[in-house]
Design brief:
Blueprint lengths: L1 E8 L6 E5 L8 E3 L6 E4 H13 L2
Antiparallel strand pairs: 1-2, 3-4
The structure holds zinc ion (ZN).
Length: 56
């Protein structure tokens, strides 16, 4: 699992996710673990994570 720098809110069931399954491809879709709805793409997760890691 990848720990996120910020939570992702599922627009279908309103569940907040602080971790997502790690994907190998940038184009891989990230789905809600509760309802299975598409939330974003893996590249978006990685892009969000970069600034958070830099601020250390
Ligand atoms: Zn959901």
């Amino acid at each position: 699992m990848q720990k996120l720098g910020q939570e992702i809110i599922c627009h279908e069931c309103k569940t907040s996710h602080m971790t997502v399954p790690i994907e190998e491809e940038d184009e891989a879709p990230v789905h809600c673990s509760e309802c299975g709805a598409l939330m974003c793409f893996w590249r978006d997760v990685v892009a969000d994570e970069t600034p958070a890691m830099k601020k250390a």
